[in-house]
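User: Can you model how zinc ion sits in this protein?
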Amino acid sequence: MSSGDDYRFCPRCATPLVEREHAGRKRSLCAACGWVHWDNPLPVLAALVEYEGRILLARNAAWVEGMFALITGFMERGETPEAGVARELKEETSLDVVRADLIGVYEFTRKNELIIAYHVEATGTVQLSEELVDYRLVAPERLKPWRTGTGLAMADWMRARNLPVDFIDLPARIARPAAGGGQA
Ligand SMILES: [Zn+2]
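Assistant: Here's the modeled complex, given as structure tokens:
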């Protein structure tokens, strides 16, 4: 998940980029052809997946032991967020979306991302993609969100159901978390 903030050459004409004040802040741009690296935040879809009455949390192969989170992924060109959530869920767990309701939109400025979080009711048989190594099914009242990223979506979802929100701290060593999340 690169936000593209490490461009050194113009992707259009290959001229080395320069740092200049442009449209209100310092930006990398190409003095030759005028290309500007706007570096806008990238939308990330997140799914709080309800499956057989419990919430499915998954562990990415690159993450530390014990770290479980929501299903997340980038949108593809031309798809709606709802279609993107359904596609990601299918790719990563083989489950099908029965319904998807927006929980909210959350900043994740640390990675220059914007999280669009859904509560998804899913059906089918869980079969993880190679990206994921393990999953847990957690009773909603036992979820423990962390204080950033998708954890905030999880906490809002819990509050809306009058569930007590008990935050936990992120594990100290994180390989490459998609966008924060929650742990069982
Ligand atoms: Zn250029």
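A couple of observations from the model: The first strand starts at residue 18 and ends at 22. The CA atoms of residues 19 and 28 lie 5 Å apart.
User: Helpful, thanks.
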